[in-house]
Design brief:
The protein has 371 residues and is an alpha/beta fold. Helices cover 35% and strands 16% of the residues. Helix 1 (20-28) packs parallel to helix 2 and helix 5 packs parallel to helix 6 (178-190). It is globular and about 65 Å long.
Length: 371
């Protein structure tokens, strides 16, 4: 198979879909690899490293898309890339379609096979290609939230860890999945007073087990959310519904419960956000203020730490990408339930129920199409 990767054009997105080590693996499996010139340089990988690994360079993204049978990316295609999409193309990347109707319809109309990292799921419920970026984003959420609590950014002027004789900052985390646990780790490490909310008692029990006596766990009811809003200096939205739009758990009216200058970091922004006032921002303009509350809602947070994030991401995506290239999407999905769950669009049909529900599109089970 001819596999390609291109430079990401989302603002301040520095990650890349394939590292030189990935190229070496694809070539060892007998595949050709095309790399757009400069694709890896923002993450610290030179064109010469790709060539040494066996890649063929192409000057433009258009040329990569035209030749490649499978394009491996990090973020979803932007409108500027829509003309490059074509029937039969296999697109392997983060898609987050439940919050992006325009891209969803483009993939369907252009009959692109879209495999989304974020919906690939193992039989025991793990999300292997989302987990590493969730870990990065969770850690960054506290780091960025702590920064924007500084007075010069409109924050409360709070140091999360406090100092002797002064109360510690209060952090509330809604969601005890990978993002929430990662955020909790950093917040506890900084010395903050941390509360974690979730509807899953087993997850709360796990948090209590790994942070004994250091974290307050609460069942995620509206009453507990409102109490946490009133207490916290930093609120982190860490909710995920695989392949579906995230529900709004905090309304705009509830912002009045928060302290002026408190900060919200909504990591769920890619899937629509779990705060009603969330809308995507970029690294060059990351925050906005609503009703006195600072919102940080960057949709590609891990892009800020591109080298770490690229290495973490590709260590998870490579094995499945090789399976797709070795076998083709049909045979790979028959052999791997993980990959089958990652297919969002195929042959002009929507094969992800959460995406179909979000936009009122007909859902067609992938099994029926493969049969």
């Amino acid at each position: 198979m001819i596999v390609g990767t291109v430079r990401e054009i989302k603002p301040y997105e520095y990650r890349v879909g394939l590292t030189p080590d990935c190229v070496r693996s694809y070539v060892a499996h007998g595949h050709r690899v095309l790399v757009q010139e400069g694709a890896g340089s923002p993450a610290g990988f030179a064109d010469s490293e790709y060539v040494a690994a066996g890649a063929e360079l192409r000057p433009t993204a258009r040329e990569v898309y035209e030749e490649a049978e499978m394009v491996v990316k990090v973020k979803e295609p932007l409108p500027e890339e829509f003309p490059f999409l074509r029937p039969g193309l296999l697109l392997y990347t983060y898609l987050h379609l439940a919050a992006n109707e325009e891209l969803t319809r483009q993939l369907l109309e252009r009959r692109v096979s879209g495999v989304g990292y974020e919906t690939m799921q193992t039989d025991d419920g793990l999300l292997p290609c989302l987990k590493p970026m969730s870990q990065v984003a969770g850690r960054l959420a506290v780091q960025e939230g702590a920064k924007y609590l500084e007075k010069r950014f409109g924050g409360r002027g709070i140091l999360l860890g406090g100092v002797p004789g002064v109360a510690r900052g209060q952090v509330a985390i809604i969601g005890a999945g990978t993002v929430g646990i990662s955020a909790c780790t950093i917040a506890v490490g900084l010395g903050a007073d941390v509360t974690v909310l979730d509807i899953d008692a087993e997850k709360l029990e796990y948090v209590d087990h790994i942070f004994p006596g250091r974290v307050t766990t609460l069942y995620s009811t509206q009453a507990n959310i409102e109490a946490s809003l009133a207490d916290c200096d930093l609120l982190i939205g860490a909710v995920l519904l695989r392949g579906a739009r995230t529900p709004h758990l905090v309304s705009r009216a509830q912002l009045k419960l928060m302290k002026p200058g408190a900060v919200i970091v909504d990591v769920a922004v890619d899937q629509g956000g779990c705060i009603e006032t969330t809308h995507p921002t970029t690294h060059d303009d990351p925050i906005y203020v609503v009703d006195g509350i600072v919102h940080y809602c960057v949709a590609n947070m891990p892009g800020a730490v591109a080298l770490t994030a690229t290495r973490a991401l590709t260590s998870s995506t490579l094995r499945y990408g090789l399976k797709l290239a070795d076998c083709g999407i049909e045979e790979a999905c028959r052999a791997s339930s993980v990959l089958a769950r990652g297919v969002n669009t195929y042959q002009g049909k929507c094969t992800c129920s959460g995406v179909a529900e979000a936009f009122g599109i007909e859902y067609v089970a992938l099994d029926s199409l493969l049969a």
